[in-house]
Structure formats: structure tokens, C-alpha cells
Amino acid sequence: MARQSQTSLTNQTSALETVRADLLVLGLFAKTRRLPEAWKKLDQAANGAIDHLLKLGDFPAKAQETAILYPQGKQAAKRLLLVGLGDKKSFDYNVLRKAAGTAARMAVKLSAARMALALHNLAPDTLKPELIGQALAEGAIVGNFDYRDHLPKQEDGSSEINHLRVILIDHRPAFCRRMNTGSKVGAILGEAQNLSRSIDNMPGNEINPPSLARQAQKVARQYGIRCKVFDDRQLAKMKMNALLAVGSGSASKPRLIMLEYNGRRPASGGRPDAVVVGKAITFDSGGISIKPSANMEAMKFDKSGGCNVIGILAGLARLKRPLHVVGLIPAAENLPSHTSYRPGDIVRTYSGKTVEIQNTDAEGRLILCDALHYAARMRPKAIVDMATLTGACVVALGPHHAGLFSNRDELGRQIQKAAEGSGEPVWLLPCGAEYLEQMKSKIADLKNVSGREGGACTAAAFLGAFVEDVPWAHIDIAAVSDTDKPQPYRAIGATGFAVRLVLEYLRTV
Ligand code: BES
Ligand code: ZN
Ligand code: ZN
Questions:
Q1: 8-state DSSP, 400
Q2: Which fold has domain 6-195?
Q3: Which of 75, 201, 227, 313 has the most beta carbons within 10 angstroms of its beta carbon?
Q4: Atom 13 (ligand 1): residue with closest C-alpha?
């Protein structure tokens, strides 16, 4: 599958000037003019190179800003990298996470295979070593990820690093040990996110519903989790007609992929602690209500929610949480053809509710309504779904927050809290009865679109009509699931947004 550089993490208790590395990374707050006490010996060894830079004021140290130094001194590291941490007042684990990502990407660029991180050196004492270690590991692992499967090797002249070795540095042994504990969790979360990204980045000619199911099976085998795939014939028997309708225009027929992790000891059946559901439209052309051609290629990322479910279940198995969690991925390809579903069709969904199709491009809510109802019938303690559901959410929140919707205040708060910790921010939006009212059809129970007003909220309200009274949260990741803007801490393409957030949530239940 993916041609991907590995990242491994270790820790080391040592003084900065003695750290042997291709790159020693230091974090610096904005507008620092005086050499920090903690760096005095390093700077002495480096012939005053850091002090000189600070005095000149050449490095404002805005967040993710970088400067490389090549001091020909006695320090053991070949190069020094300063990474800006921005304003001290706005410093948190997320700043640290992004700084580690920035450093990892710089290390790759410089072919520096051994990178020592001392980003937290000047951080306030109130920060927890475990959470520092976790954030640094997540940042480095997510930063050292690039989708290069279809590029020739060494395309840009640099020698690729197959293995980035990251060493977390602190001079206090106890602190180092605790940081190491956190970095093990961070590595699992970061790798879970990259697993989602590696599948999500694959184009529609490689990933369709059946091949996505094979990817899920492969991951399930690797991590010892159960995987069951329902094919189109089984889906017809189960009357999952909304999922089938959406996929009817494509030669690659729909699948419902179910992953199951049971970490309860003894493994008891019964009600799952959570069902995690993810939309997987392997390509969304809009169908008969076809989309404009501009940027349509980005609709390969319409499977992000489903790819996240694969990452989350793999992560959960590696974390060995004592929970019973089911992952559900409704997968279909939305194409126009002579077999496609059409505007005007009326579909009887798995729940028995009928839906009038007014726009075949509002297909996410259709595949999800069948999967969510299937989830609700398991009577889990909570359902969490992730979906690239609406352009309206992109308009409402931009690329900075995902939309969060819930039928329970408490679950909403739990997800918000997990989001803060993971640095994957969400914003709570309403999805109450007044929005569902807008989705009522004159000739069926519901229609699949209403006007443009409150489009993310009406879509969420539609989903909420299929979960019965089970506590449910919906995360609209349309704006955040992929990026075409390269950032210092992260590559372009799939982001895996919500993998760490949902894993953080599952770590607390
Ligand atoms: N997959 C899209 C939503 C989307 C838009 C994701 C932009 C990422 C970026 C979804 O299936 C869709 O097309 N939704 C329509 C719904 C409309 C017809 C009510 C939309 O948002 O335009
Ligand atoms: Zn669509
Ligand atoms: Zn879609």
C-alpha cells in the first residue's frame, strides 16, 4: 500500500550540548531577545550562535516559524533548528503539537534522520509531562506523513528518509520517564490518524466500496479486530434501500462495513459502549444532480468519515481500552448513469421511514440514515458519526472548526472537551425539531433537502430522526477533512481530522 516513512520515538535524559543528532530542535517564544538560561551551555558550545541570532532580532518566533543554525562548535548536534512557539500567553499542547510537526517536516526536508526534540524546554511548569510527550509524538508522526505513492522517488532531489528517529530530550530523569509514557499513547493516536489519511488519500479509481471493505478487513486482521462486510445482496435483504439507492449508479456496488473491538474482560456481548459511524462516499459526483466540475476531484475525500472509523478502531485496539466499540462504514459511489437513483424517487429506508429524493447530491444523509438506524438498534450507550456532509458547514465555520451536533447536552460537552484536548476543534450547532420540520415532505415522511438556510443544521436534524432516543453526536467534517494548503506542520491531502478527537473521547468513557 502506502509508501510511508516510519517515525519512531525514544527519550533521553541529557544536557542539550551533548545530544547527538542530525537536528536538535528548540522551541522559542515570540519576541525573545535574551538567551534563555536553559540554553546557556548549549550556546557556549555553539560559539554563541543562538545568542547572536536573538540579539540581531532576526527571528520573531511566530508560531511555526523556523530558523536553522549551523554552528561549527563543540555541540554534539550537527544542526540546530529553532521553532517559533508564538505568544507565551496562547501557549498550549496544541502549539507544541504543531511545532513538533513543523520540526518533523523540516527534518525530512534536510534528510536529518535523527531528530532530537527539546521544544518544551521553556514551557511553564504547569504542563504535564505525559501530555507533553503525547503532543510531541502526535505532532512528529502526523507531520512526517506525505502522500507520495504515485510520485517517483527523490522527485525533488532530496534523499528520502525511510525512518525518522525522534528523541525526546529532558535533563530530569523522572520527567523523561513520564514524557515517554505519554509519547506511547501519542504514537498510537498519531498512527491511527495517518492510517485514516493513507486510505482517504487514495483516488476513486483505487478505492471503491468493495476495495474499501478489503482495506478494512486487512486492518482488522492486523490489529485483531472483527470485521464483517455486508454486500449489496445482503443489504437488499436487510432493506437498506437508502444506501443501495445512492450506490445504484455505479458498477461498484455499496457495502456496509462493520468493525468490532471488544476489550471487555471477559468479552461480553450486549450493548456496545459506543458505535462510531463514518460516511464513505468513495467518490461524490453528485449523481444525476451533478456537481460543477471545478474542484470535483476533492470529492474523493468524501470517504473521510469512513476512513476515520478504520483508524479509530485500529487505535482503540492498540490502546487496549476495556470497551466494546462497533465501527460502521456505509460505503457507496455516487455516480450518474442509467441505473442511478433520481430526483423524485421515493425510498423506503431501513428504518421504515420514506424519503423523497429532491437532490441526489444530498446522498451522505441517505447512506448514514440506514447505518445510524442499524447502530441505534444495537442500543449502544452513544453513537458518534463523522461525515463530510454539507457545503453549508464549510460556509458557516470555515476550515477552523468542524460542526458538532447532538441530541444530548452531556454527550455534546464530552465531545467538546475531547476536541479541546486533541487540538481538533469543533463548534456546537443546533439540530432541534424546528430544523427537522424543514425536512418534512408532502408526499413522504421526509425529503432529503430543504432550502439553503441552515443547511448543516437541517442535514443533522435529518440524521437525528434515525437514531431513536440513543445519545448521538454528529461531527460535520466537510471543511476540515482535507487541505490543499501546505502548512509547515502538515502535508496537503487528507487530514484524518476527528480520529484523535474521537479516540480521546473513547479514552474517557
Ligand atoms: N459531500 C458533499 C458535501 C461537501 C461539500 C463536502 C464540500 C466537502 C466539501 C455532500 O454530499 C453534498 O454534496 N452536499 C450538498 C447538499 C445539498 C445538495 C443540500 C451540499 O452541501 O451542497
Ligand atoms: Zn453530495
Ligand atoms: Zn457527499
A1: G
A2: Leucine Aminopeptidase, subunit E; domain 1 (3.40.220)
A3: 313
A4: 361
CB of 138 within 8 A of CB of 124? no
* The pLDDT value given to residue 265: 81
For 385-418, how does the pLDDT look when each residue is reduced to its tens digit (9 = 90+)? 999 999 999 999 999 999 999 999 999 999 999 9
Does the beta carbon of 302 lie inside 6 Å of ligand 1?
A: yes
Residues 262 and 127: their CA atoms lie apart, in Å, by 33
State the amino acid at position 267 in one-letter form: A
Task: Report whether 49 contacts 71 (CB < 8 A).
Answer: yes
Compute, in angstroms, the gap from residue 162 CA to the centroid of ligand 2.
Answer: 38
The answer to whether the CB of 391 is under 6 A from ligand 1 is yes
Task: Quick: pLDDT tens for 451-500.
Answer: 999 999 999 999 999 999 999 999 999 999 999 999 999 999 999 999 99
- Report the residue count for the chain: 509
What CATH superfamily classification does 201-508 receive?
A: Zn peptidases (3.40.630.10)
362 Cβ below 6 A of ligand 1: yes
CB atoms under 10 Å from CB of 15, counted, come to 13
Cβ of residue 12 lying under 6 Å from some atom of ligand 1: no
Distance 389 CA to ligand 3 centre (A): 6
CATH 3.40.220.10 domain residues, the chain: 6-195
Q: Where in the chain is the domain with CATH 3.40.630.10?
A: 201-508
Which pairing describes strands 383-387 and 472-476: parallel, antiparallel, or unpaired?
parallel
